[in-house]
Amino acid sequence: GAVVSQHPSRVICKSGTSVKIECRSLDFQATTMFWYRQFPKQSLMLMATSNEGSKATYEQGVEKDKFLINHASLTLSTLTVTSAHPEDSSFYICSASLDRTGYTFGSGTRLTVV
Amino acid sequence: KQEVTQIPAALSVPEGENLVLNCSFTDSAIYNLQWFRQDPGKGLTSLLLIQSSQREQTSGRLNASLDKSSGRSTLYIAASQPGDSATYLCAVITAGGSEKLVFGKGTKLTVNP
């Protein structure tokens, strides 16, 4: 079945630094990947849709200059949280779909900004 | 705008009990509906996917039904086990071109031994 690998699983960084999170589709090519953010005890909030070879599409209210998304290949999308601040601390999850018949999610990244 | 609601928000049952989780959505024009499981601090695991033309899907002790016209889906878990304890999320893709999943807030299930 479709497998999505996400790294790192946990990261702690200092305020003002940048953090990169990788999302890879291991056994299929994903032209579209999705990045979500999840606050404690809340559901997933879609941040952006990552399209291979083109600019990401951001949801309303998501700062594209703070959350940089790059989808350089059919198997890799990266999310970079730039100049991170404590309020950016959250759980970030990516997903990909082989086609629209179902979505596979990564294992998530717990970001803590201190 | 599609909205997904899950009831109840939390559920605690003794081991062995059969249970039903509910999901409703406001726009019945969906492409498919998917049930996921999320363990604390983990990503999502897909449980069942129901296409808009289907009425139900089964996998082991899990059965999901879909009534698209009324905007409802149920996830039935038979003979619940402590290992079933997790948060269960329902998500839909609305027909019309967008691939976006719209999630409910989930039902946190606790199965007590």
Note the main attributes of this structure.
heterodimer, A: 114 residues, mainly beta, 7-stranded mixed beta sheet, 11 strands, B: 113 residues, 5-stranded antiparallel beta sheet
Structural class of chain B: mainly beta
Number of helices of chain B: 0
Sheet of most strands of chain A:
7 strands, mixed
Per DSSP, what share of the residues of chain B sits in E-state strands of 2 or more residues? over 45%
Structure description:
The complex is a heterodimer of chains A (114) and B (113). By secondary structure, chain A is mainly beta. In chain A, strands 2, 4, 5, 6, 9, 10 and 11 form a 7-stranded mixed sheet that branches. Chain A has no helices and 11 strands. In chain B, strand 4 (30-38) and strand 5 (44-51) form a beta hairpin. Chain B is globular and about 45 Å long. Chain B starts with a strand and ends with a strand.
Topology:
The complex is a heterodimer of chains A (114) and B (113).
Chain A: E1 4-7, E2 10-13, E3 19-25, E4 32-38, E5 44-51, E6 57-58, E7 67-73, E8 76-81, E9 90-96, E10 104-105, E11 109-113
Parallel strand pairs in A: 2-11
Antiparallel strand pairs in A: 1-3, 3-8, 4-5, 4-9, 5-6, 7-8, 9-10, 9-11
Chain B: E1 4-7, E2 10-14, E3 19-25, E4 30-38, E5 44-51, E6 56-59, E7 62-67, E8 72-77, E9 86-94, E10 101-103, E11 107-112
Parallel strand pairs in B: 2-11
Antiparallel strand pairs in B: 1-3, 3-8, 4-5, 4-9, 6-7, 7-8, 9-10, 9-11
